[in-house]
Fold this sequence. Notes:
This protein is an all-alpha fold. Helix content is 77%, strand content 1%.
Amino acid sequence: xxxxxSVAPQVSRGARWRRWARNRPWLGSCIAAVLxxxxxxxxxxxxxxxGLLTAALAFSAFTVLVSLGQMLVISVxxxxxxxxxxxxxxxxxxxxxxxxxxxxxxxxPGLLAATVVxxxxxxxxxxxxxxxxxxxxxxxxxxxxxxxxxxxxxGRGLKVKPPPLFSDxxxxxxxxxxxxxxxxxxxxxxxxxxxxxxxxxxxxAAVGQNRRAALLAGLRxxxxxxxxxxxxxxxxxxxxxxxxxxxxxxxxxxxQEYLLMTIAVVVIGGTAVAGGRPSVPGIWGAAMFMFLLVAxxxxxxxxxxxRTLLTGVxxxxxxxxxxxxxxx
Length: 328
């Protein structure tokens, strides 16, 4: 009897801990980011911790912005993913630089133009999915080729420099924090509030969890999917403009790394690949982890091959782990 009494509280505490962790899918990515930061610091001899953290925040901000949109698309149900993000970034960056044309007064119109161009790509993507009944992955992959062709013709291979004010803003720090990271944080909070407090946010969760039940409940399923794709592409468009300002001009390959990266960040961040359970805080943890992982591999002399291989292995491991938990 005494043994049973002593074991019961331990079992109860273990069950509570597992339940607490299960309700916070973002926890793993945040812990992984901290461990990657510590490992990178150790491999570098412990110096430059502040500079590494600042760089991680700056570069991760772009990943966060595009991954938030990918998260919304993946959350509306199995099979949904936007593979046109790299092309959208390239086209929107070129559009922003052309509209700005080096003029500080055209900064806001240029950012708006990039966002609108991105949203137009989202409308085109969903048109292929809905009207032509093409699976989302195939539709967005085909759209990416078309969008990239347009980007090539629009940019004509020219790198247009951003306005001086734009370059200064992209390099600005507020209390040591990169301004671009604060912009990404503001967008993150907006998306989190949308998911928690609006009809659209609740509809995204409901549609992703059970499409048929959402239809029977009277939710506008296709409208929800449409808005998810448009928001995703709009965020990619804004990111394209910000990257162009950060890197000194537009480039056709400036979004290339975000095809695999966004999916990795969404999955590692704890968003359910089956849909219905987005994890906003996990986007930041996973984005920081991916950047710090690259920094760690660079510190030990590894090339891009091992980085890509390790990314794929991590995605597979996270999906397998998530599937096994769901089965239990």
